[in-house]
Task: inverse folding
């Protein structure tokens, strides 16, 4: 019988990973599992958890703090006296002791180490927004917070949770990681990073639930399968008959072009047939290679947000998307 989400697979296949990216369908218990872990960490070791979201506005919404403790109180993970507000979760309304600290990636530069010397775990909830609009320098923000907050604590972990959205995100691009389609857990031991693609867990809405007829009719994605969006679909060969665009990008001495067909844009290694060759690197600019203009970056960013970009292989994805994620 299927279970709700848990970290058994991560503990088995990537026990030594410092950061784990966990992607799966809605409502399989990802958030609840880590809420429970946060309270267990406090009860057993008096260590706090930092709970991350992408944007400050998500945390400042009163509904977020008001609802955060619904499940923990229902399941008895914390006493009824536990209190939450826009700052985090406290043992009671006097705010005598803080159990969970709320923090946004968008304001990472405001956080100082001496403010977080009791944090033993970071949970980044919904690290991939469904609109694919990320805060500026979000990958750097995550790195900064782990270094500042966890301070190299060897038993600390960072867990990043999301629905099935896209492998083309600033975190996978920044770390240059990509999940293997045949594995539930892909571990990169030389990087200390793991990706779990959640399969086989219990869901709040089972497959045979009659409401799924409504969601299918309304084309409402439940992100129930990695094939439903672009977790693996981003990597695709250039189809026959695709037409080559007239500009090219040079990165690390490799020239890339893009071809389009049926509303999709495919990036690949190319031989330029025009003089419009751009680069994001000042070191690679020359009389024949120009610095990449803002409108090209905007084209790539809008294509990513619209989910129309495809790449010949993961390395090409890293190269092209790093142009926009360097500043996102």
Result:
């Amino acid at each position: 019988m299927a279970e709700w989400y848990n970290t058994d697979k991560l503990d088995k296949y990537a026990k030594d990973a410092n950061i784990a990216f966990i992607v799966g369908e809605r409502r399989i218990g990802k958030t609840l599992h880590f809420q429970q872990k946060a309270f267990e960490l406090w009860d057993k070791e008096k260590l706090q958890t930092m709970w991350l979201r992408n944007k400050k506005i998500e945390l400042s919404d009163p509904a977020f703090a008001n609802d955060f403790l619904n499940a923990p109180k229902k399941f008895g993970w914390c006493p009824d006296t536990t209190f939450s507000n826009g700052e985090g979760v406290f043992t009671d309304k006097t705010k005598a002791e803080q159990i969970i600290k709320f923090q946004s990636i968008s304001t990472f530069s405001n956080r100082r180490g001496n403010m977080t010397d009791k944090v033993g775990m970071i949970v980044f909830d919904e690290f991939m927004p469904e609109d694919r609009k990320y805060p500026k320098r979000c990958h750097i923000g995550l790195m900064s917070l782990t270094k500042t907050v966890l301070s190299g604590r060897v038993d600390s972990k960072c867990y990043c949770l999301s629905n099935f959205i896209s492998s083309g995100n600033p975190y996978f691009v920044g770390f240059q990681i990509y999940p293997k389609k045949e594995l539930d857990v892909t571990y990169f031991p030389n990087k200390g990073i793991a990706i779990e693609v959640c399969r086989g867990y219990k869901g709040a809405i089972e497959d045979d639930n009659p409401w799924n007829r409504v969601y299918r009719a309304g084309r409402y994605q439940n992100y129930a399968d990695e094939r439903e969006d672009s977790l693996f679909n981003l990597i695709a060969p250039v189809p026959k008959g695709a037409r080559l665009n007239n500009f090219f990008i040079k990165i690390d001495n490799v020239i890339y072009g893009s071809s389009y067909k049926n509303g999709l844009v495919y990036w690949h290694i190319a031989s330029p047939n025009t003089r419009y060759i751009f680069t994001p690197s000042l070191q690679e600019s020359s009389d024949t290679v120009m610095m990449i203009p803002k409108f090209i970056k905007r084209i790539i960013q809008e294509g990513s947000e619209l989910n129309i970009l495809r790449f010949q292989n993961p390395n090409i994805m890293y190269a092209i998307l790093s142009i926009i994620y360097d500043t996102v």
